[in-house]
Structures are given as structure tokens and as C-alpha cells.
Amino acid sequence: MAEDDSEWVIESIVGYLGSPEWVIPVTDFMENKCTVFDDEDENKLSYTEIHQQYKKLVEKLLENYMQEVGINEQQFLDACTSPFAKSKSLQSFFQPVLATDDFQMFRSLMVQKNMELQLQALRVIKERNGALPECLTDGVDVMTELQQQEMKILEEVLKKSKEEYDEEMSKRLLLEEDVASTSMGCSDRPEAEQREAQNTTSAHGQQSSTAKAKGEGNGDNSSSGHQTPLVNGNTATENNLVNSSPIRKEKKTAAPGGEDQKSAAKNCSSSKPTADCGSNSVESRLLPAVRAPVKSSEPSVSSSPHTKEQSSSTSQSAAEVWLEEAHREAGFSKPYTELSVSQQEQLQQRAAYLRQQRDKLQALKKEQQKTRQTTTPEEEPTPAPTANPTEMSAEERKKLQKRKHLADKLKEEVIKK
Amino acid sequence: MGEAQKGLLSVIEKLKGSTEQEVRIVLLGLDNAGKTTLLKSLASEDVNTITPTQGFNIKSVASHGMKLNVWDIGGQRKIRPFWKKYLENTDLLIYVIDSADKKRFEETGLELSELIDEENLKGVPVLIFANKQDLATASPASEIAVGLNLHTYRDREWQIQACSAVSGEGVQDGMNWICNNIVNKKK
Q: At which positions is GTP bound (chain B) (predicted)?
């Protein structure tokens, strides 16, 4: 008899575990609580508290359900231990239930959820801005890939330099052979070599310049490879830094200092950012030093007019502003390995930013749940923010201000802890 | 806590349906006693990169056909109030003592006696590791046993085992005692 029972009981349970009555509260809980779950070996004490809360939630849900359907615990147990329930297709349904009793499983579910949300946030940022701000791409998670890329570049460079060297050697040999006979060749050669060198530089863009610096033994360049694949021209222009500094200063003072941050988030239309990447990246290096005074003096005086101006300005200048911001944030990435206070601050900013994005996602999800849309929640949040990123309503500006405030608060909290 | 609540959770517990017998072990002791080192040594992991535990660590170790889920919870004074939250359903307590830290014998004794009085640890066997025996200044296990008044424990199985978590000496003996004891108890 129990056998007969279990069939419909299990079907009903699985149905429940797939229904919004179960999925929404459980998913909500996970999304709200998952931020503290990281991939560290050591568990935080707060995990236990959250696990307890989770247990209570699942218990309450299951109890309500069992009461509603009219099955008792024994039936529930029988059903869940029946061979039918053990099939692989159903196991995933039971995972959130089993996680109440298995902290490790719970933890891995939460870590996974946290990761999903972060990736989602990154995707949203990417879709809105056309590219990721550098500060968000320089993390540990992409490190290995970047290192690989760096290695590739290094290899290519070594190959190139060997080629150049070989060529030079062969030329010299040639030169020695007919040193007496041709006087013309003698004067021509250096020029040719120079031209050749130039060609390589332009052909390989930043890669070869990175490489050259490395070849000459500039150790400080070792981390520049991390940026190379991500933002065009950043490393390439490193060498020109000194020359560009006056230009940079001019531009900076002309730029609407304190508003950068807001407009960075707002103005970036997805199409343009790469347009003046080259010129901007040259300047970016100097930003941290130059920016501070400008920022402190300007925002209070000119913040509102600037916002308006910017929202209506061309997307090109918007992109420029955004890039400045991105680069400013990324300014620390070069000596990334040695953590200084400012870098930690940057990291915290980054964390706050991610968190902010996550909160926004959640808010969106909640709204959408209210409107009872049937599409999956994962897919929904993306279209909304991308719908009209260039059109800046006053409301949106307000929202951004709020979010910024929230982020600041979060940061404060993090620092306090 | 209501009856029904307990009931449903225990139902879920049964759902796991693993064939292995699972044992929940809690690993406690003062800060710097060597709990995490011991845990890692049990799990055959590297013990050279251990930092003070701010939260807790969990390792599952297979031994004598059982799955030992060992929970190592940080021992710093500010974390100790949290110990209580991890004692429910514990099958065995391992208490670690830094045998060379004579100044804190009294403190560690107090913490242990508080644990022994915990409702959730009633009748739970306790294994005391007199750790850091590799240090020249370490007190012998027998001396520590006297200091802790272990002989007055009448309500549970107990054992004190000299060991060095760094070298691994004595650790296996302790584990053998655990397994024998759990097997006896669960039968």
C-alpha cells in the first residue's frame, strides 16, 4: 500500500518543489543571504546562523505543504526514499531540501548562487556599458587566463626579438662581407632597421611595446600584461606617459570632476567606449594623482548643471568620461600584487559596486515577481536596464544617487567590520 | 523548539540515506591549541600554512568504515560563545590542549568543564589531545589529566592522548580510540 502511495506522493512533492510557492521563497532567501558566502576554505560564523534560518524556512514550507496536501511525515519519508525519488532527474529537486541537514551542501549551494549573481551583475554592466570597467576585470578569477595571455605575448615577443636579432646579425654579416665595396649600403642600413623596428611596434601594438620594455629588463612592467588583453592600448602608451601629462591636466580640469562617477554609470552607451580608447588610456595613468583636488573642489559647486549637460552631451564625450572613470578606478592595477591602502580601498569600491548591482537585480526581480511574469527570473533583469541607457530621466538620476549612497554605506559597514 | 520541528528535520536527515555511518565530531580548545593543525593532519593536508581560525573548518575523514565529520571551531575568546551553536547532535568531543602553555591550563580547564556541563554534550565521549608534545617544555599527558580532574568524570567515556599535530605522533592512537568508542556506543 505504501508503494502505491509513494508514487503520487512523490509526484506531488516534486511538483511542489518545482512550484513558485517553493521556488520563490527559497530562491529569495538564497539571493538575499548568499553575498557573504565565498570560496574560502574556512567558514564564517555567520554561515551557521544563515543555515539555521534556512532550516526554519524549509521546515515551515514543507510543513505547510504537507498539511495542505494531507500527507504525514512517514509518507513523506517513504516517498522520498523510494527508488523513484532516487532517480537522477529528481535528485536536483531534493538538493535544497537535503541542504537543511547537510551544511556542506548548503554552503556549496550558497557559494554557487553568489557566483551566479556576480556573473549576472557583470553581464548587466557589460550590456549597459559595452565593456567592463577595468576594475571589474582585473580580479583573481580571471588571473590565470590573463597570465596565459601574458605568456603568449611574452613568447611572441621573444620570437620577434630573436627574428630581429637574427636579421640584424645576417645583415651585419652581409655588411662585413662587402664592407669595402658598397658605401651606400652602409648608410642605408640603420635607417632600414629603424623603419623595421617601427613597423613591428605599430603592427603589434601594445604587445610589442610591453615586450620591449620587458626585454630591456623593466621589471615594473610585469603586471601590465594583466591589462593588455582587457583594455586597448593601456600598456602600449605607458612609455609615452611623461609626454602626455600636460595634456592630461588640461583635459582633466576641463572635465566635470566630481560628476564622473554618476555619469560613468549613466552615460555609457554601449556603442562608443572604444572610440577614444587610445587617447584616454594614455592619460589614465595619471588620473589618481591629478584627480583628487579637482574632485574635492568641484562637485558641490557645479554638480547639477554638469549632470544635465552630460546627459545631453554626445555619447562620445560620455564614453570619454566613462573611460576616465574606469581607468581611474583601474589605476591601481599595475602594482596589483603589492596591496597598498589605496588598492584595498579600490577593492572595497569594487565589492561595493558588485553588491550594489546585486541589490538592484534583486529589486528588479521582486518587481517582476509582483507582475507575475512567467519567464525565468535569471533572464529578466537584463533587458530592463538596457532598454534605454542613454535616456537619463530625473528618476534614474535619483536612483543612481540612492545607489551610490547605499554603496557608500555598505563600504562603511565593511570597513567597520 | 516544537516537537514537529524536530520530527521533520530528522525525517530529512534520514533522506540522505548514505550507507556509511556518519559521525559528528566537534573539535574545541583554546586559541593556538592546534585544533586546525590537528584537523588538517587528520585530513592529511599541509599543516604549514595555518592561520588563526576566525570562523570554523569542516573536514570529512573516512576511518574504520565510518565517515567522521569533524568541525573545528575557532578558539579565540571572542568566538568561544559561539561554540554552543555547534554542539547539537554531536557524537564526540575532541578537546585540544597546548601542553606547553602552562599559564593557561586553568583557563583551558574552565572552558572544558563548561563544555562538559552543556546539555547537548550530555554523555558524549570526550577525547583530550595533549598537543605539542614535540616541544621540550610540554607537560606530560598524565600531569594534565590530574590538573583537569579528568578522573572525576563519571558520566561519560573519556581519554587523554599525548600527541603532536605537527609531527602526527599520537594522532592516530587518538583516532583509534574514537572509532572503537563510537562503534561500541552506537551498537
A: 29-36, 75, 131-134
Q: Pick A45's closest partner by Cβ from B17, B58, B79.
A: B79
Active site residue B5: no
How many residues comprise chain B? 187
Question: Which residue is listed with cell 595634456?
Answer: A247
Instruction: Report which of A246, A228, A247 is spatially closest to residue A237, judged by C-alpha positions.
Output: A228
CATH superfamily of B19-186: P-loop containing nucleotide triphosphate hydrolases (3.40.50.300)
Determine the residue type at A14.
V
- Under the banding of pLDDT at 50, 70 and 90, the label for residue A311 is very low
Chain A residue with Cα closest to B54: A44
Q: What is the pLDDT of residue A219?
A: 41
Beta carbons of A237 and A279 less than 8 angstroms apart: no
Residue numbers in B near A80 (CB within 8 A): 15
pLDDT tens sequence across A60-116:
999 999 888 888 888 887 777 777 666 777 777 888 888 888 899 999 999 999 999
DSSP chain B: --HHHHHHHHHHHHHT--SSEEEEEEEEESTTSSHHHHHHHHTT---SS----SSEEEEEEEETTEEEEEEEE--STTTGGGGGGG-TT-SEEEEEEETT-GGGHHHHHHHHHHHHT-GGGTT--EEEEEE-TTSTTPPPHHHHHHHTTGGG--SS-EEEEE--TTT-TTHHHHHHHHHHHHHHHH-
Strand B66-73 relative to strand B56-63, pairing: antiparallel
Ranges of each domain in chain B: 19-186
Which chain B residues are closer than 8 Å to A42 by Cβ? 53-57
Q: Which residues of A touch B (CB under 8 A)?
A: 41-45, 47-48, 52, 55, 58-59, 62-63, 73, 76-77, 80-81, 94, 97-98, 100-104
Residue A321 has pLDDT above 70, yes or no: no
- Has domain A2-101 been given CATH number 3.40.50.300? no
User: Is residue A50 within 8 Å of residue A33, measured between CB atoms?
Assistant: yes
pLDDT band of residue A188 (cuts 50, 70, 90) is very low
Q: Do A48 and B16 touch (CB under 8 A)?
A: no
Q: Give the pLDDT confidence of B22-48 residue by residue, as tens digits.
A: 899 999 999 999 999 999 999 989 988
Instruction: Confirm or deny that B89 is annotated as ligand binding.
Output: no
CA distance B150 to chain A (A): 30
A102/B8 CB distance under 8 A: no
- Are A100 and B9 an interchain contact pair (Cβ–Cβ within 8 Å)? yes
Structural domain spans, chain A? 2-101, 140-177+185-220, 238-416
In this prediction, residue B105 carries a pLDDT of 95
Residue pLDDT, tens place only, A10-46: 888 888 989 999 999 999 999 999 999 988 889 999 9
